[in-house]
Structure formats: structure tokens, C-alpha cells
# Entry
Amino acid sequence: MALTTRGGGAGGGDPAKAPSASDPSLGFLTKRDTEVKLPRATRVKNKTPAPIQITAEQILREARERQEPEIRPPKQKITDTHELSEYRLRKRKEFEDVIRRVRWSVSAWVKYARWEEQQRDFARARSVYERALDVAHRDHTLWLKYAEFEMRNRFVNHARNVWDRAVSLLPRVDQLWYKYIHMEELLGAVANARQVFERWMAWRPDTAGWNSYIKFELRYGEVERARAIYERFVAEHPRPDTFIRYAKFEMKRGEVERARRVYERAADLLADDEDAEVLFVAFAEFEERCREVERARAIYKYALDRVPKGRAEELYRKFLAFEKQFGDREGIEDAIVGKRRFQYEDEVRKNPLNYDSWFDYIRLEESVGNKDRIREVYERAISNVPPAEEKRYWQRYIYLWINYALYEELDAQDIERTREVYKECLRLIPHKKFTFAKIWLMAAQFEIRQRNLKSARQILGNAIGMAPKGKIFKKYIEIELYLGNFDRCRTLYEKYIEWSPANCYAWRKYAELEKNLSETDRARSIYELAIAQPALDTPEVLWKV
# Structure
């Protein structure tokens, strides 16, 4: 049975099936003609290993062996002058074409100039370098190649001219100066080399430039010149390493006093430098080598006082080793204390609110017995106030104040300072949120010990007014009772009961006071008032009494 296509003639086909009509760029081709046919992926049916295995190394070796030899152009032999001139003309044209395409490429210019140099046409090579400098005069490698070309072919004056221009244009490129000076040294022109060094030093180079100048003078035995350069060097670069280098230079020549003066200048000038530790260690070791043990010890102690604790770890280690070698028992103990002091400083620096570290640090200083240092540590410790006004954060902190006050009273025996410590502590505590009865009572007892009863009463009165607590009432009543002021005791008991009417202890003690004074009616009235209270903490005790 015949099949007919829908739509009849050539114009009735589906537009999607006529790509040439929809895509004019294909011309008479169809999409099928332009499709890229990929080979079908072969499916491996037999996956068992082959009897003969081959490694990746064998594959690479076979590929290398079967590689065709590289095709190289034939060597050209020039037999006469005419062929040589044609060859040169062709090569120059090639180089000029390359330069025209990549004018900024320094390597293209250098290749051109080297080819001209091989042809022994130095004027043309020089011309190529000069043209290159018009393009890239800031490229120091181009100047180096140019100057080396002049030196290689023994054009000394031309080379000097190139070096002069190079260091004038690029004075911060040290390599140009080094090469220039090296050339003058090779030529034996020491005066010219020295003059170049002076020009370089006028640009204030880094330490490497100054060191090379000093070594240059020492190579020719000019010690005084080298010393003068060192003086300029340390003035230009006042750093510990430059002074140490200068002192070592003097030591090599046996000038001990000069070396000591250099170290002393450095210690005066750089005592607060961040690398001062290195300087002091070198100074102390210098004195050790000179058998000046006391001088070395004084330097170590001076340094430990001046250098911040965070940067003095190496200094402490050296000092401890020094004392073990040269010191007596006391000196070794001092060094060990210094090391422990450094450890505590590190701890409190990392966490200033770690009060246990402060207690250990204070205990260490108190064992040494230096009053100024003890007070300094106490002041630093109490300056770290807890960040939150909650009593649990203050419970360890408040003992710093207590210990400080006891130290001033008992060890330092400074009464006024003790009084100031107590006042400052009481001023600092936020009594509206919480208080410490212990501080109030200790301050009052201190005043009693100084026979200043008025101040003690004032402190306890302030405590009752600002932050009343049962412990304060009890102690205040005990003091007044001991002094025989029974009227004051009655007043205090009344305030105590007024502040805490449910406290059976206060009622009972008040009644006992009256009973002991043979005031039976007053005692009975107090008991009557107590049992009439709407709420009591321990009523059974009160009824029993």
C-alpha cells in the first residue's frame, strides 16, 4: 500500500523539517549534514584481565621510542662577504619586525643587541640598547645588560657612563650600585669606588649598603675610615643591631673601652626600643667576656627594670644562667624570683581578673620585702574592679583590699595609708546592691586599735545607716557593751529590732540585757512585745526563754 505525505508538494512540508528554510546561513546544507557524529561508546563485554599486562611506564617509553626526530633547519655556511651581508640584512629585518610587534619586550631588545655583539658590530649593539632605554628606562635589568655588554668588551669609559646614568635614574636599586662598585674595584680604582659609595650613602640606603661600605674599607685596611662610617651608620640607623655590630667591630680590634662606650650610648638612646632586650643581652655578655661580673649584673638588673615583661623572656633566661655561673645563693634566689615574677606578669596580663594569680604575685613580692614593689602590685591588683555589680564576682576581689589594709597596718606600719585603704574600699563597694560586713567591722576595729573610738562609732553608724546587717549590729552592741555604754546598747537593740522585727535573736538578747541589768519589768515588756509580733523566725525559742 502506498503512503502519501501530508501536504503534497515541496512547499507543503513541516518548517521544522526544513532547516535550510529556517536557517539561511546553512545554504543548501541540512542540519543532518552539519551534525558531528561521535563514535558509539564500545561496551566491554569481557572484563577478565589480559594474559599480557602492560604498565604506564612501558606505554610512555614506547611513545618516546617511536617519536619522530625533531626537524631542524640546515646549517648555513657563509662563504663570501656578499652572503654575509645578505644574512645580516635578513636577520636585522627579522629582529626589527619582532621589535615592531612587541616594542615593550625587553628580552627582544636584548636578543637583538646580543646578536649585534656576536657580529662584533658594537656601535649597532650600543644603538640597540639606547633605543631600548627609550622604551624601558625604568627596567634595571636592561641597564645591567647594557653595562655588562660594555664591560665584557672592555669599553671601560662607556661602562662608567652607563652606570652613572643608571644610578642617577634608579638610585634605589641596590644591585646597580653593587655592580658599579665591583667594576671599579676590579679596575683597581679604589678612589672611584669610594666616591661611588659616598654617592650611594647620600641616598640613605638600608643597613646592607652601609655594611658593604665598611667591608670595602676594611679590605683595604682603612680602619679609621671604617670607624667613621660606623659613626654615620649608627646615626642614620639607630637600632640595637647596628650598635651591636659597631661594638663587635671595636672588640675585634681590641678596643674594649671604645666598645663599652658604644654599648653605653646605645643603652641611653635605645632603652625604650622594642628590641632593647637584644641590646642589653649583648652588652651584658660583652661585660662577661671582659670578666666584669658586677657590671654585667648591674646591666641585667637595669634591663629587667626597663624592658616590658612581655618582651623580657630571653633576658630572664640569660640572667638566671648568669647568676648560676657567677652569683652566690642570694643572687640565684633573686634571679629565680625574677623568673617567677615574669611568669606572674604574663598570667595577669593575659587575664587581669584572675585574682588568684594576683594573690600569688603579691605573696611572692611580700617574700622579697620591697615595699614600693609590693604597693605597686597591690595598686595594680585592686584597679581590676569586677565588671558586674554582683556579690559573687566581688567575693575574691574584696580580699585584695583586706590583705592590702593588713599589710599597711602590720608590715608597713603606715597608719594613715591603712585608713585611706579602708576608706577607698568602702567608697568603691556598691552598698545599695550589696555590702561586706567584714570590711565595715575591720575598719572599725582598726580605729579602736588606734584609740579612735569616735571614728569607729562613725564607721559602724554609717554601716547601719547605709547597709544594715545582723553581724554589724551584733559587733557594734558587743563593743558598746564591753565599754559599759548600756544606753547606746538599748538604742542599738531598738534599731536592730526596728530593722528586723521577726528576728528572735535580737528580742532575746535585748531582754537578756535588761535582765542582767536587773530591769525585770523592762525585760518582761520586751518579751510581751516580741510574742505580739505577727511573724517570728524561731518563736519556740522565744517562748522557752
Notes: The chain has a mean pLDDT of 80. The CA atoms of residues 264 and 283 lie 8 Å apart. The longest helix spans residues 329-350.
